[in-house]
Amino acid sequence: MTEEYDVVGVGIGPSNLSLAALLHPYPEIRARFFERQPEFQWHPGLLFPGAAIQVSFVKDLVTLADPTSPFSFLAFLKAERRLYRFINADFERVHRREFNEYLRWVCAQLDCLEFGRTVESIAFAGDRFVVDLGTERVEAQHLVLGVGTAPVVPECAKPHLGPTVFHAAEYLDRRPELAGKRVAVIGGGQTGAEVVEHALESVDRLPAVLYWISRRENFLPLDESPFVNELFTPSFSRFFAGLPQPVRAQLVAKQKLASDGISPRTLARLIRRLYELEFLDSGRMRSHLWPAHELRAIEPANGAWSLEVVDLLRSRTRAFEADVVVLCTGSDSCPTPIAPLLDQLRDGSGQLSFSADYSIVWDGAPRNRIYVQNHDRRVWGIADPNVSLMAWRSSLVANSLLGREVYDTEDSAPLIGWDD
Fold it and tell me: Do the beta carbons of residue 302 and residue 93 sit within 8 Å?
């Protein structure tokens, strides 16, 4: 017998986990979510001891959609008997390790999640989606894609990936030996800053030389100013989605630092630590911080690596050697098992068109809908891959699946008159 569901979710990251939690009170929706990883872990290679999420803990899986949900971060703290201690500790931001614990706690309470299950392919047959899991097939009326992102690796580094050249997503899994080594960190965002901070925190494993390379013109802070938070609201997301595509592309580029800068707290700790190492622990380490530089080549050399970077401001080339190269070069959308079908649905510019409920506009709707989580900030704005609007987005999908409004998705009148 082929199992039939109302909706099948591909990938179990925070976004699809949010949807699963919001659907839990409504058993009339038969839902199943599949994830190829054996268990839930949220960026395990980057769970540094002091690393914190960059948004309020209120922006968890469910609270902004349903503050009474038993799957909120506060419910987790209460269940784990640490609520008062958390309040008294007065954290500015929640540690990523604790938020990961919270996400795993929610997973343990939902029986619609299946880990260690790889979706091999998805086909559309008649009026159903057929999901091939290798050892079995299931059918679904609707799909929700939330496969997340995959590390981006520069072309010049791909042939050399291994124990001493790797993406930062593997950093804590590899636990590289840095003591006395020449270390190059490629990338000037939050991840690059956290890798540098981790490399410098212990005198016992301090590198001999640190190179920190960034294409950005400086090591720039995340824009956390009050009015910037208006970009992370349902009102702005709706307004943004209605703009012409060229305007949306320009806005995303201009608003980059609202979601992709370095936490000012991290920058403050780093500049103090570099001061200590230069003036109070003189001679322990040399550092070279080169913004406005781009990695162009990497080759084996003398048992290490020869790197070539281009100075983007002065159009000149620098060459140096490193023993360990950490690529903090970001991530991009993962390919999905439904990619061939999605390719058929793209318009002349190669883009997908979406309805207000995050489903793709296609000939099969409304009988069969394909919802896409975290698709593209050029469609919904810079908040799309961010957890800030995760609960709101999931509530839109949940309402659509249920065919009625069980979650209120309207926010207050925006402070800024985007659409006046």
Answer: no
Residue 390 burial (CB count, 10 A): 28
d(CA 388, CA 384): 8
Domain 151-221+260-327: give its CATH architecture.
3-Layer(bba) Sandwich (3.50)
Which value, to the nearest 10 degrees, does the dihedral of the CA atoms of residues 57, 381, 65, 69 take? Answer: -40
The two tokens of residue 20 are 């699963």
Distance of alpha carbon 167 from alpha carbon 169, whole angstroms: 5
CA distance 222 to 93: 14
Neighbouring-strand partners of residue 209: 182, 286
Structure tokens at 167: 């993406």
Pairing of strands 304-311, 316-322: antiparallel
Q: How far, in Å, CA of 369 to CA of 374, rounded? A: 16
Question: Is 339's pLDDT higher than 80?
Answer: no
Q: Which amino acid is at 340?
A: P
Contact in structure between 258 and 223 (CB atoms under 8 Å): yes
Q: Which residue has the tokens 């709707």?
A: 365
Polymer length in residues for the chain: 420
Q: What stretch(es) of the chain map to CATH 3.50.50.60?
A: 3-148+334-402, 151-221+260-327
- pLDDT for residue 134 is more than 70: yes
pLDDT tens-digit map of 284-322 = 899 999 999 999 999 999 999 999 999 999 999 999 999
Q: How far is CA 222 from CA 186, 230, 237, 257, 261, in A?
A: 18, 15, 20, 5, 4
Distance from C-alpha of 53 to C-alpha of 267, rounded to nearest angstrom: 15
> Which pair of tokens denotes residue 121?
């392919």
Q: What is the DSSP-derived secondary structure letter of residue 221?
A: B
Which backbone phi and psi does 367 adopt, to 5 degrees? Answer: -60, -40
Q: Give 27-91 as a DSSP string.
A: TTS-EEEEESSSS--SSGGG--TT-B-SS-TTSSSSTTT-TT-TTSHHHHHHHTT-HHHHHHHT-
CA dihedral 85, 86, 87, 90 (to 10 degrees): 110
Helix, strand, or coil (residue 124): strand
pTM greater than 0.85: yes
Architecture of domain 3-148+334-402: 3-Layer(bba) Sandwich (3.50)
Residue type at position 119? V
Structure tokens at 387: 């957890």
